[in-house]
Amino acid sequence: MRIDILTALPSLLDSYFNDSILRRAQEKGSAEVHIHDLRTFSEDKHKRVDDYPFGGGAGMVMTLAPIHKAISFLKAERTYDEVIYMSPDGELLDQPLANRLSTLGNLIILCGHYKGVDERVREHLITREVSIGNYVLSGGELPAAVLSDAIIRLLPGVLGDATSALSDSFQDGLVAPPAYTRPEVYGEWAVPKVLMSGHEARIQEWRYQQAVQRTRERRPDLPGLHGMGVE
Ligand code: SAH
Q1: pTM, to two decimals
Q2: How confident is the model at residue 162 (pLDDT cuts 50, 70, 90)?
Q3: Which of 12, 49, 77, 80 could form a disulfide with 141 if both were Cys (CB 3.0 to 4.6 A apart)?
Q4: Which domain holds residue 186?
Q5: Which of 5, 83, 87, 125 to mutate to test the pocket of ligand 1 (most atoms within 8 A of CB)?
Q6: 138: CA distance to ligand 1 center in Å?
Q7: Given a cut of 90, is residue 221 above it in pLDDT?
């Protein structure tokens, strides 16, 4: 999979993609992430990518031309499955959406800033809008990193244990069961005995029951309690 991110602040994204699982995914060839500075597509002599809003009001608006040029430049090289704009009023990111996007080939992700982008970008260039939650951040870079991480960790070969992404919270419509590691006893705090029993079926059953109980307590809205997994 290839992800091209368009941003006015590329340095905000560099460190995130050059470390952690996301770097490993790129080294292994599972994912390619390219970060593009929108300013390089600006023909303004000061390389500006924003301007005052028509009709007045507070805040700057990201201009159409550099975004259009950047997207056209990328589309001339290859076809893209989606051109995504990170936006607080977009479709809420959840695990099923991350799963679906992880099956695609090439994605463009546009990060907004200031008051957002000129509406004509959204009307004519964007195919999908994604929000990471009902709150407003100052830029689309963290949301783009969140979305990319949620997608890339699902790609084959990225996580060490092939089944581990599937056993995360939300994949079966339940939150994850608790996890423990050494030491078995720390002062008075001991690990649940069943985990030390070596009895695989009993351990699986215990984990499932824990996941159901936790989901009931914490996230009764999730579909796993109603006998439905997620697609
Ligand atoms: N005026 C806009 C907010 C702009 S915030 C509004 O009220 O909707 C600046 C940029 O940050 C946005 O263009 C978007 O790219 C990004 N952003 C902020 N909050 C976000 C969220 N919850 N999800 C996705 N992107 C977000």
Answers
A1: 0.94
A2: low
A3: 12
A4: 169-227
A5: 87
A6: 7
A7: yes
